[in-house]
Amino acid sequence: MRLPTARGPITAHLFPSLAGPIGGPVSLPAPAGPSLHDDDLQLALFVCYELHYRGFEEVDERWEWDPGLLRARAELERHLDDALAEAVPRPRPVPPDQVRRALADLCGDGDGPFSRHLRRAATLDQFREFVAHRSIYHLKEADPHSWAIPRLHGRAKAALVEIQADEYGGGRPERMHAELFRATMRGLGLDDAYGAYVDRVPGITLAVSNVMSLFGLHRRRRGALAGHLAALEMTSSLPNRRYAAGVRRLGCDAATALFYDEHVQADAVHEQVAAHDLCGGLAAAEPALTGDILYGAACALTVDRLWAEHVMDRWERGEPSLEAIGHLVA
User: Fold this and answer.
1) Domain ranges in the chain?
2) Please, what's the b/e burial string for 215-247 (b: 16 or more CB within 10 A of its CB; e: otherwise)?
3) Would you say 47 and 4 are in contact if contact means Cβ atoms under 8 Å apart?
4) CA-CA distances (angstroms) from residue 219 to 53, 146, 213, 222?
């Protein structure tokens, strides 16, 4: 992936620094304020985080641990933290044996107007836009949550490895969920290259991914990361059933729907493992983390809801939900 196009003063300062010699000064303007919708802030953080994943062609890999860049990133993360604090009421901690019930109360059944729209009424262009948005995370699916594996132990660690093994295809590259998603993109005529739509998505789409990386890259946030994963798994089966039905309604073949079919089955199992063994096990081993577990789940649910509201609002006004740069269809 190449560095994306700058979207404001922060990225306009950051990107030339990253494309230059390692160790150069990294001085960034202050964000306008904490906002999950701030394109400039979210893109800057996304690029900083991406150095820990695939990186960029024109960026020296040594930037990943450059002290100056890490200091600048920490300031951006402070604004993301403030934005989450404004948007997400922090759930009250509960005793470890009540974490599973508290997660279930937070998550409900995953039902919502967005998945119903994709099932019943979305046009082919809207479904393509939906998939382009989701590609920002799904093409590295499981990677942000895998940061927690070396930070857990015992029952919680075994549970996370069980979930992630399925996400990575159980040793079969063609069954990796990221590869199944690529097949969905190809079936819809989309570019399946990693990061192909970074320049097209709004800040709130990048925030969905950034929150996972924020929780994943800091050991002290391991509770929030576990809760975040549990919320995704516990609210996945029903929406994915609807996405599968929606993509078939639009005339797509079985290979295009397989990603969603797979999640209907896999996540019905994963939600039990994530809630009971991952989060329940972590809470039992480290009771002080119960509040963080629930906060992580609440962040996942809130940011995804804000993203869905943004997309639906654009569609209801008859507008595309992606920036009009280039062509959507490959």
Assistant:
1) 9-87, 96-316
2) bbbeeebbbbbbbbbbbbbbbbbbbbbbbbbbb
3) yes
4) 17, 12, 11, 5
Please, which contacts does 238-243 make with residues 24 or more away whose CB atoms are closer than 8 Å? 238/109, 238/110, 238/111, 238/115, 239/110, 239/111, 239/112, 239/114, 239/115, 240/264, 240/267, 242/115, 242/116, 242/118, 242/119, 243/115, 243/118, 243/119
Residue 110 predicted with pLDDT over 90: no
∠ at Cα 278 (100, 47), nearest 5°? 110
If you average pLDDT over residues 243-266, what whole number do you get?
A: 94
Residue 229 in contact with residue 161, Cβ under 8 Å?
A: no
- Which residue in 298, 301, 300, 291 sits closest to 99, CA to CA? 291
Helix (H, G, I), strand (E, B) or coil at 23: coil
**Cα–chain center distance at 321:** 18
| DSSP tally for the chain: helices H, then strands E | 15, 0
Q: Where does the pLDDT of residue 328 fall: very low under 50, low under 70, confident under 90, or very high at 90 and above? A: low
Q: Does residue 177 register a pLDDT over 70?
A: yes
SS (H, E, C) 152-209: CCHHHHHHHHHHHHHHCHHHCHHHCHHHHHHHHHHHCCECCCCCCCCCCCCHHHHHHH
Residue 237, pLDDT > 60, answer yes
Amino acid letter for position 206 = L
CATH 1.20.910.10 fits 96-316, yes or no: yes
Q: Please name which of 276, 280, 142, 156 lies closest in space to residue 212, comparing C-alpha atoms.
A: 142
Q: Which amino acid is at 188?
A: L
3-state secondary structure of 329: strand
Residue 187: partners with Cβ closer than 8 Å, 6 or more residues away: 247, 252, 253, 255, 256
Structure tokens given for 296: 């992580």
| Full-model pTM | 0.95
Tokens representing 27 are: 């001085």
Q: Which residues pair with 329 in a beta bridge?
A: 190
